[in-house]
Each structure stands twice: as C-alpha cells, then as structure tokens.
Amino acid sequence: MSQEQLRPVRVGLLGIGTVGGGTFTVLQRNQAEIRRRAGRGIEVAMVADLNTDLAKQVVGDAAQIVADARAVIANPDIDVVVELIGGYGIAKALVLEAIAAGKHVVTANKALLAVHGTEIFAAARDKGVMVAFEAAVAGGIPIIKSLREGLTANQIQWVAGIINGTTNFILSEMRDKGLDFDVVLKEAQRLGYAEADPTFDIEGVDAAHKATLMSAIAFGIPVQFDKAHVEGITKLSATDIRYAEQLGYRIKLLGIARRQAAGIELRTHPTLVPMRRLIANVEGAMNAVMVQGDAVGTTMYYGKGAGAEPTASAVIADLVDIARQLEAAPASRVPALAFQPDELSPLPILPIDEVVTSFYLRLRVADQAGVLARITSILAEQGISIDAVLQREADEVSGEGGNQTDLIILTHETKEGAMNTALAGMQALPTVLAPIVKLRKEELA
Ligand code: HSE
What we know:
Layout: E1 9-14, H1 18-29, H2 31-38, E2 42-48, H3 52-59, E3 64-66, H4 69-74, E4 80-83, H5 90-100, E5 104-107, H6 110-127, E6 131-132, H7 143-150, E7 156-162, H8 165-177, H9 181-191, H10 199-202, H11 205-219, E8 229-230, H12 238-246, E9 249-259, E10 264-274, E11 286-293, E12 297-304, H13 308-325, E13 356-366, H14 371-381, E14 386-391, E15 404-411, E16 414-415, H15 416-427, E17 437-441
Parallel strand pairs: 1-2, 1-4, 2-3, 4-5, 5-6, 8-10, 10-17
Antiparallel strand pairs: 7-9, 7-11, 9-10, 11-12, 13-15, 13-16, 13-17, 14-15
Helix pairs in contact: 1-13, 5-6, 6-11, 8-9, 14-15
Bound molecules: L-homoserine.
L-homoserine (HSE) binds next to helix 8.
C-alpha cells in the first residue's frame, strides 16, 4: 500500500485542559508537516471533557465532543486514546479500559505510570497495543526517546535531572533574592508557577515519579515508585543556599537514578551541584536532564518541562510514533520501557542507607576548643573523609554574642548509612546546639 492510501490515525482526547488544548492547536497548525513525517494524517476525531462548553470553544466543530470519556473508548473508529486527565483514579480505569478495547494509549500521566506502570504495560502487551508517555517526563524535552532509542547502544551509568519546574523556580528565587521557602512559595502561587495545592511538586513526589520512569528505561527494571527515596524542598533554608554558594555549589532538586554493582539508586532530594556544571545554571521553571552512558559519555537535555505547547510537542511525537508503527507487528515495535519485557533486570532498588554520595553538613556548635576535633573524629570513625570545612565567624551567625558558630563540612563519598551513624554521634555532643542539616552533594562529573 502506498503511503498516500493510508487513512488518517484517529485520536480521542480525554481532557481538553492546558495540554489537551495545546495538542489540538499544534496538530491543527502543523498538520501538513506532521503528515509528511508520519506518512499519514493524524486527526483529533473526538474530545471528552466534563466541560463540554470549554471543549467546544477549543475545537469548534472539528471533532465530536462528549462529556463521557467512555464514549471515546467505545468508539470503534478511534485508534489512539490520549489520556490527559491525570491522577491515579479515573485515569487508571480509563487507560485500562482503553487498552482492553484495543486502543493505543498516549499519556502525560507520570503519577499513574510510576505507581501502576507494571500493570498497565502488562495489559498493553497482552493486548498488543502501545502505551507512549514522552510527555510524562520533562514536558517538551524528548528524554524518553533519547534514553530509549538515541542512547540504546550504551550501558547507562546514571541519570540526574531537574525535572520539576515549580521547585526549580522556587529554588532560583530563593537564591536570587535570599528569601525563605514559604515566602517564595506564596509568590510562586500568586504568579501561577505553583499550583494552589503544590504538595506533589514541593515534596518531591512529581520529580520522583519522573525519576522512576527514567530508571526503568535506563536500566531495564520495572517501575517501582514505592521503593524510591523522596525528599522535597520544604525544609531547605536560605542559609544553606547561601553557604553552598560560598563553597561553589548551587542547590537543585534532582531526580537521580544510578547503577551500582549491587542495585539501583533511585532518589529525589535537594542536591548540591558544582556551580560550574551546566545543570547548576538551569534557572526558573526550566528542566534539564543529564545522562551518562559508557559509550557516549555525559550528555544533557534542556528545555521546557511544562506548558501547553511544549507538552503537546511530546504528546504529538508519541502520536507520530504510533502512526508509524500502527501496522507493525507488536514484537517489532520499540518496547515501551526500552528493554524487551521478558529481559528485565533483577537488580533491586537499593535502600537509602546503601546509596553512595558526598554530603554537606551544617552544624550549629559552641565556639570553643576541641569541638571541630571531636566532630572530625566521629566522621573518621565511620571512614568518612572530609573534603572542605567552612567556619563562619561567630558575629556572622545571627548575633549570638560570639559563643556559637556555624560549621559547614563537605565530605567525600560515603554510604548514607555510615553518614547517619556519624550524624547520630555528632548530634549527641553537648557542643552541637541545633539539629544538624544534612544535604547530599553530587559532582556529576
Ligand atoms: N508540575 C510539574 C512541574 C509539571 O512543576 O514541573 C508537570 O509535571
């Protein structure tokens, strides 16, 4: 059959909010270019949204509008269902029903796939349909495609990314203006950079969902969000951002997946990154992901991680992929998680105590003889080597009358378990006057 004879791929959009609207608009605007690439047209034939008036405003008469998403799934003429509802509830039921009805699925729903991906990918495999999710990680940046296809020759060593724009915006503002987290969060909400309920963003959950998806594709392991270590930025103080800066580091919320011999590190937390790294200079709501592979070395991908058209760019890339592979035998398609589903690795996700990293510690201590010696000897007992020490003059520390000081210690790499043992010992010293701040540091070399 010549390409001219292939009928258009018919798409049903579930949800016509920001991303749905962007997807419709970009598909309309670039349809000729997209057809030249896909070898066939891609048309939005149906839109389901509870707000049918909004749907009408966005798509006019170009597509059938329904309030009931199940009407899209039940329509035998629809080839691909695009799920843009979000969350684990109705979205999960609809994705599974769409798969059961033999539809291919495109979704931007990182939460759904990070938590229920194993069930969803297995259902899709049984049914011989594709589930594509480029838009779920880092919005418009084609990081899924890069990891899954562009870097397919490599043993991936690690992936580390700024994959949440809300928190990167907040951290940039905290550093720029020397403001505390709560103040900047309120401002971010006022400006629309943070949602009214920002919990998933600021607690690191959204970034951890995305890191979980990248870990599966990078290492050929199942998606295991339940084993991810997740810390957000809510406890981060402007003081530590300032001290990090003085030591040549920026603090970024990183989603990290790293291969060790014994297993995979999967963790999201505020991280000190050397200021000279490109990724340390990714500011505002932008996203960036670094990937290190044994053959390619270190690579970095940068762009908008959210927004109507950047996310639509990723959704439509998936639609084009599906259009190209629609008639292909399932076994010859690119596997959803990069590796053949029966070739998954048994490498476990490591508990946080087994994670190897370097640390930033801040201790409020009594400024008297022997304090530093005692602290360094506790670190030495755990085999932890010190990289740098900074002591602020007593009068710089909030007018404590010169008898207290902040001691900032950077360590070399160690297991987190050893660090926690040392921390307990240091915290118990009568000369340590406040809870010790512990942050992880990555050189990303
Ligand atoms: N809320 C996300 C962010 C965008 O702030 O980056 C969607 O994942």
